[in-house]
Amino acid sequence: MPDSNSAGDAQLAAFRRSIDNIDAALIHILAERFRITQAVGEYKAANALPPADPGREQKQIARLRKLAEEAHLDPEFSEKFLRFIIDEVIRHHERARGS
């Protein structure tokens, strides 16, 4: 019979593998999201549209806060995370507009 410490280490390793897989998926999802938002930025620049859309941002934040609550994720955290992404997207759109 294995001692409880090695069983715990195996369980911890399994948890960590799952976390690593999720982290990899998040990176790929973010990369895809930024590929799309880059195309949006180029479209906005070509059509003289502003880099930011505060109305859409507010709707997205409200929608994702609701989703976070339904998923039992802290809505404050989800809003901070989304705000970080939105700010980065706007920065990219401003850069596309300037080039």
TrEMBL record:
Keywords: Isomerase. Its EC number is 5.4.99.5. SUPFAM superfamilies: Chorismate mutase II. The keyword Nucleotide-binding does not apply. InterPro entries: Chorismate_II_sf, Chorismate_mutase-related, CM_bact, CM_dom_sf, CM_II_prokaryot. GO terms for biological process: chorismate metabolic process; salicylic acid biosynthetic process. Residues 6-97 form the Chorismate mutase domain. It is an enzyme of class 5 (isomerase). GO terms for molecular function: chorismate mutase activity. PANTHER family: CHORISMATE MUTASE. This is chorismate mutase. It comes from Pelagerythrobacter rhizovicinus. The lineage of its organism: Bacteria, Pseudomonadati, Pseudomonadota, Alphaproteobacteria, Sphingomonadales.
